[in-house]
């Protein structure tokens, strides 16, 4: 499988600095800041676009954890009442979730400001990256929250806009990123071009624009993967993987009964006596029918809350593990859902069920197939897709569960 990883911006900035003459690097009016009126669209474009991208990389992980708690992908083993509010789906206006909403908006606006500042240099990889960052931030805001906001222009603020409008804005920015990237050679450009197309397909599907979603998804290579990388820096854990942070450091991201059953025997079997190792009387540990894409670790202790047994997820295994943002497999799911051809839907469903050691489905009932597709697609995405499918944008969609502990 081809995996096209995006290097974390901080590491790239270090690399860029190493290639810059010391005199040039230090010759600024204020070495502690890059002043707006002194920005050079060509010289400063890389550091600005990578900084905006790093802001996005630092922000999305916390959103993934909150989404998992809200959609019941994971149990909340935290002592903070505001985090337990998320797990109960009872989030007051005073919740700290407002801070996460603001962080995604700040990332979006940072990228928009960056692209405005560097556009005079022309269609460069840095401009494509800035459009890409802004577009994906918009997409996530539209998928996670009921509303967002985008300034009408560079000086005029604007009030709230709907999730569907956020999706449309994401399509516009990601289309621009795709267009610019396609005109540039190299791996970084092809990464952005393909990942943008996945985002375009995703936004259009959520907005109910199925033909546009199918057309975009069809352009993504089947073996494509786009990972947001993180850094294992003991001096700055903000650069690390947030899923691992809430597992290793916070000890509050707990794998529930359903997912442990799927890991052990391939399906949830409620009503059984639970064993301390996470298995049950109806679902023995490591059964032959267990889904190999799902795993957990019994840590032999309780979670931070002192109540739940701490069963740690086994997707992220360290601070430097990546988060998958887009893939060709997700694009395939989007296309078959958008096209709505039962035979095609069933073929992809059973292809993936075979990987999970599950028996094939035989139904051609569109309603049953769409529910299964949504289940599987969210397992692949491991992102805000879970929220979008739970809440919906343009039409009601079935309440579903997902597998954050699964990545294939």
The CATH architecture of the largest domain would be Alpha Horseshoe
CATH class of the largest domain: Mainly Alpha
The share of residues in extended strands comes to: 5-15%
| Topology-level CATH name of the largest domain | Serine Threonine Protein Phosphatase 5, Tetratricopeptide repeat
Q: Which structural class is indicated by helix and strand composition? A: mainly alpha
Reading the helices and strands in chain order gives EHHHEHHHEEHHHEHEHEEEHHHH
End-to-end Cα distance: 12 Å
Could you please describe the fold and organization of this structure?
This protein is mainly alpha-helical. The protein has two domains: 4-228, Serine Threonine Protein Phosphatase 5, Tetratricopeptide repeat; 252-313, no CATH class. It is built from 15 helices and nine strands. The protein has a three-stranded mixed sheet. It has a two-stranded antiparallel sheet with strand order 2-6. Strand 7 (296-302) and strand 8 (309-313) form a beta hairpin. Helix 3 (45-70) packs across helix 4 and helix 8 (187-206) runs antiparallel to helix 9 (210-217). The longest helix has 26 residues, at 45-70. It starts with a strand and ends in a 17-residue tail after the last helix. 46% of the residues are buried. Residues 1-32 and 387-408 have low confidence and may be disordered.
């Amino acid at each position: 499988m081809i995996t096209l990883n995006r290097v974390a911006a901080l590491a790239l900035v270090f690399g860029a600095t190493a290639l810059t003459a010391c005199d040039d690097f230090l010759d600024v009016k204020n070495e502690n800041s890059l002043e707006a009126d002194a920005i050079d669209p060509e010289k400063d474009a890389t550091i600005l676009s990578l900084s905006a991208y790093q802001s996005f990389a630092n922000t999305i992980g916390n959103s993934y954890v909150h989404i998992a708690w809200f959609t019941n992908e994971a149990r909340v083993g935290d002592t903070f009442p505001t985090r337990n509010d998320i797990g109960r789906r009872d989030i007051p206006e005073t919740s700290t979730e407002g801070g996460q909403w603001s962080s995604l908006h700040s990332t979006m606006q940072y990228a928009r400001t960056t692209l405005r500042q560097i556009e005079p240099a022309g269609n460069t990889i840095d401009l494509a990256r800035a459009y890409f960052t802004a577009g994906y931030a918009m997409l996530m805001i539209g998928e996670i929250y009921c509303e967002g906001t985008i300034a009408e222009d560079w000086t005029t603020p604007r009030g709230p806009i709907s999730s569907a409008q956020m999706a449309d804005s994401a399509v516009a920015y990601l289309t621009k990123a795709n267009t610019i990237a396609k005109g540039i050679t190299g791996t970084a450009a092809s990464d952005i071009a393909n990942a943008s197309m996945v985002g375009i397909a995703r936004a259009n599907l959520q907005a109910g624009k199925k033909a546009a979603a199918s057309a975009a998804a069809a352009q993504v290579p089947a073996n494509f993967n786009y990972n947001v990388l993180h850094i294992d820096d003991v001096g700055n854990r903000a650069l690390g993987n947030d899923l691992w942070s809430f597992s290793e450091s916070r000890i509050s991201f707990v794998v529930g009964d359903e997912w442990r059953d799927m890991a052990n025997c391939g399906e949830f079997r409620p009503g059984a006596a639970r064993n301390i190792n996470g298995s049950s009387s109806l679902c023995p540990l490591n059964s032959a029918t267990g889904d190999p894409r799902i795993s957990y670790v019994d840590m032999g202790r309780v979670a931070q809350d002192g109540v739940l047994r701490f069963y740690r997820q086994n997707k992220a295994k360290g601070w430097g593990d990546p988060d998958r943002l887009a893939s060709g497999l997700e694009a395939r799911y989007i296309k078959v859902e958008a096209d709505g051809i039962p035979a095609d839907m069933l073929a992809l469903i059973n292809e993936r069920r075979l990987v999970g050691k599950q028996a094939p489905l035989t139904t051609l009932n569109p309603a049953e197939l769409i529910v299964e597709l949504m289940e599987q697609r969210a397992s692949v995405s491991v992102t805000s897709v879970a929220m979008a499918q739970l809440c919906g944008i343009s039409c009601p969609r079935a309440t579903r569960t997902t597998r954050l502990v699964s990545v294939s």
